[in-house]
Amino acid sequence: xxxxxxxxxxxxxxxxxxxxxxxxxxxxxxxxxxxxxxxxxxxxxxxxxxxxxxxxxxxxxxxxxxxxxxxxxxxxxxxxxxxxxxxxxxxxxxxxxxxxxxxxxxxxxxxxxxxxxxxxxxxxxxxxxxxxxxxxxxxxxxxxxxxxxxxxxxxxxxxxxxxxxxxxxxxxxxxxxxxxxxxxxxxxxxxxxxxxxxxxxxxxxxxxxxxxxxxxxxxxxxxxxxxxxxxxxxxxxxxxxxxxxxxxxxxxxxxxxxxx
Length: 260
Known about the structure:
CATH topology: MetI-like fold
Shape: globular
CATH architecture: Orthogonal Bundle
Helix content: over 70%
Strand content: under 5%
Low-confidence stretches: 253-260
């Protein structure tokens, strides 16, 4: 067997191994049993109904959505100008700034969580949703920068030069030429920032306090008791992530077509 075929087989085996838990989670979420049982004795929507009928689950979900949306906005507001400066700027500390921007990917989340907890405790931000949004923004910023830098490097600057040659100001060129062409990258970056915040649990365990986010609520419920409601919530999270990744993939292809 050639090296390429061996690599394909290995990747396929790893992919199947990672997907196997889904074959258990989906049926359990529709189980008619009063506890975790596989295979389920029958099918029922009761655990989805219990999720929607429980105010604690709904509050945790809404809080995670609120924090995720705030994280997306903040990460874009910081990441887009930062990406422009990294791609088009010419200043001595550009490489240092690039490495600092990527640091949250390298630093273990638990170390970041302990450090940010010490800072936020002095600022009295523990338990506040906007404190979590700020912490998640730091974690999401590298993803926004990576996507935007890729889009800017494929961008044809002759389009901007043509607009300025026709009398457009820099602001008009940015608003009517640059950002519309970069819209696929902007949307993809915003969705990545949202999903990285929505699924984050380690930082939430340190900063959320008594106010639950959805991942923290799931983690706490697993420690106390395990019922199929966890499986139902997990399925909904998986579907949400799958939809977001599908949208990102579609916009990614749109970006490639625009670049060509």
